[in-house]
Design a protein that fits this description.
Pfam families: ATP_bind_3, TilS, TilS_C. The chain starts with 7 loop residues before the first helix and ends in a 9-residue tail after the last strand. It folds into three domains: 226 residues, HUPs (Rossmann fold, 3-Layer(aba) Sandwich), CATH 3.40.50; 84 residues, Uridine Diphospho-n-acetylenolpyruvylglucosamine Reductase, domain 3 (2-Layer Sandwich), CATH 3.30.465; 98 residues, no CATH class. The N terminus is likely disordered. It is built from 14 helices and 20 strands. By secondary structure, it is an alpha+beta fold.
Length: 442
């Protein structure tokens, strides 16, 4: 039997206890039943409880004409409750899944508005949790996916918190009717071409007709799976401990792992460790795409295999795997003349270059490797640059980006490589700050 409605405010406060000292609570306010009840509860609790500053955020997707009236409705509700509202308009990128694209646009807006240590509250409830579990089950999700929605997760510079996951939709409806609340009924929620709507209207009612506690049981299963995922994450941290140590080229600023500790694990533990490591970097591959890891793992020593994932790619070089994304996958332009070597030189699409010590005389140029370059080394004579890079173990994907310092056609230095990055007798060195390894959508 569902818990009495009168218990809802105290349950909400209990669930929000860990975040009572946050600087602010933002409420994702669509105007629907769930967020309307959440906003009403918090606005009234704020009259008797010491809560962080409340505000509401309404994201307008512009996907249907009916939605144009929703910001006005949300503003009226917030005005009546004395809660400031911010309306954010987003553009939903076209794609195979309109649901997913709208969700990504919505959460990108939420992330941009969540400040340091701030908390964004959303109104998903227990029925949503069961629906999410079932949706991911039919898509063949693993333990992480079947854990469904976590009660909290990082968002922007703060946290996203779902304080109503132990509350049923029936309880929310009862509260709303008891307080005579008005809410928006999104017409698209009845469109059963959307997978979640089909499950909500066609599948879950049949399940609960046969098993009345089905949604509660599914939510409980999701909690068990979250616990199992927690244990898998702990195992991954143990397995990554020796692989995640900085290597020789840590100055590249790229996420990387040593291969040997990984390949000593069983295949299942390799996938678990890599999934844990990749999760903050990219959307994880499905089962079929894990063949890319096998190709990377089994590649011969002189190969340069690539495993392309949703938000970047993995490369193998120097006994390590490297994560490349953002600027590292974009074209970059030739640098040319260095007009003022005493000042930093911004390389188009390729970081920043500086000289330390006594600035070498003469007009200086910055170029990138084209092949056939030769460098004069004290005591060694002329040496082919390709051989020097091989000796230094420079990863193959870095070689074309390494800035080269020339004067009158003569190669003077290769940035950042010990013994090649300057002239000890003249007391100068060439320093390169590579492009920042941004993680795109992640």
């Amino acid at each position: 039997m569902d818990r009495p409605v009168i218990d809802l405010p105290s349950r909400l406060l209990l669930n929000l206890q860990p975040w009572r000292n946050a600087p602010a609570w933002g409420i994702a306010f669509s105007g629907g039943l769930d967020s309307t009840v959440l906003l009403h509860l918090l606005a009234h609790l704020a009259k008797t409880e010491s809560l962080p500053a409340l505000s509401a955020i309404h994201v307008h997707h512009g996907l249907q004409s009916a939605a144009d009236a929703w910001p006005q409705h949300c503003q009226a509700v917030c005005d009546a409750l004395g809660v400031p509202l911010q309306v954010v308009r987003v553009t939903v990128q076209p794609g195979a899944s309109l649901e997913r694209a709208a969700r990504e646009a919505r959460y990108a807006a939420f992330a941009s508005l969540t400040q340091a240590d701030g908390v964004l509250l959303t109104g998903q409830h227990r029925d949503d949790q069961a629906e999410t579990l079932l949706f991911r089950l039919v898509r063949g999700a693993g333990v992480r996916g079947l854990s469904a929605m976590p009660a909290q997760r990082p968002l922007g510079q703060g946290m996203l918190v779902r304080p109503l996951l132990d509350v049923t939709r029936a309880e929310l409806e009862a509260y709303a009717r008891a307080h005579q609340l008005n809410w928006i009924e999104d017409p698209s929620n009845q469109d059963r071409q959307f997978s979640r709507n089909y499950l909500r209207h066609q599948v879950l009612p049949r399940l609960t007709e046969r098993w009345p506690q089905a949604q509660a049981s599914m939510a409980r299963s999701a909690a068990h799976l979250r616990e199992a995922q927690g244990l898998l994450d702990e195992l991954a941290q143990i397995d990554l401990a020796s692989a995640d140590k900085p290597g020789e080229f840590h100055w590249l600023g790229l996420p990387s792992l040593a291969m040997a500790p990984l390949t000593s694990l069983s295949c299942a533990r390799q996938r678990n460790a890599l999934s844990h490591w990749l999760e903050p970097l990219t959307r994880l591959p499905d089962t079929d795409h894990w063949s890319g890891w096998e190709s990377l793992r089994h590649a011969v020593g002189d190969a340069s295999p690539v495993w392309r994932l949703a938000d970047g790619e993995l490369r193998r070089a120097g006994g390590r795997i490297w994560w490349l994304s953002g600027q590292w996958l974009r074209p970059f332009s030739a640098a040319g003349t260095w007009p003022d070597p005493a000042s930093a030189l911004k390389l188009p699409g390729n970081g920043v270059l500086t000289l330390s010590g006594q600035i070498p005389y003469g007009p200086l140029q910055i170029r990138y490797r084209e092949g056939g370059e030769v460098m004069m080394l004290p005591g060694r004579g002329h040496r082919d640059l390709k051989r020097l890079l091989n000796e230094s173990g420079v990863p193959s994907f870095v070689r074309g980006r390494l800035p080269l310092l020339f004067r009158d056609g003569q190669l003077l230095a290769v940035a950042n490589l010990a013994g090649l990055d300057g002239c000890a007798s003249e007391g100068w060195r060439l320093h390169w700050q590579p492009p920042i390894a941004d993680q795109g959508l992640r």
